[in-house]
């Protein structure tokens, strides 16, 4: 199973469209918030059998997306959140604590526009960064892919694009 993980696209969708075209076919697309209305169009850009999991970001003012979601992938229980309610701009500790309190062994979040992947107190915390407004050193737009193996293990890969299209 191949999964595309993105966040903070802020309706600047050219990079997202390019990444989807490059990574297809997808079994799942996870968007961790701040799609700003593009959540209605993203399903048209992926292959028809792609499962969509999207959550609300702090800039998704008129969206009907869920604030957070818990999903099961293989042997993993995963918390999907934008992260702004847990102070992720100051560090991942709060969102990791929330994930652990819910029995999740993985938490995926956005908001900071900086890619992050680490295991903290037994919880894998990841942020794919931003495809539209990256803030990490070098400012390359970023995303992640994951592969769910038959044994239930999830393997993550941080990816960057070198050409930054800003619509």
Provide a descriptive summary of the structure in words.
- The structure is a single chain.
- This protein has one domain: Metallo-dependent phosphatases (Purple Acid Phosphatase, chain A, domain 2, 4-Layer Sandwich).
- The chain has three helices and ten strands.
- The protein has helices at residues 14-23, 42-45, 93-101; strands at 2-6, 28-31, 51-54, 68-73, 76-81, 106-108, 116-120, 123-127, 142-148, 154-160.
- Strands 3-2-1-9-10 form a five-stranded mixed sheet, covered by helices on one side. Strands 4-5-6-8-7 form a five-stranded mixed sheet, with helices on one face.
- A hairpin with a 2-residue loop joins strand 7 (116-120) and strand 8.
- The chain is globular.
- It starts with a strand and ends in a 7-residue tail after the last strand.
- The model has no long low-confidence stretch (mean pLDDT 96).
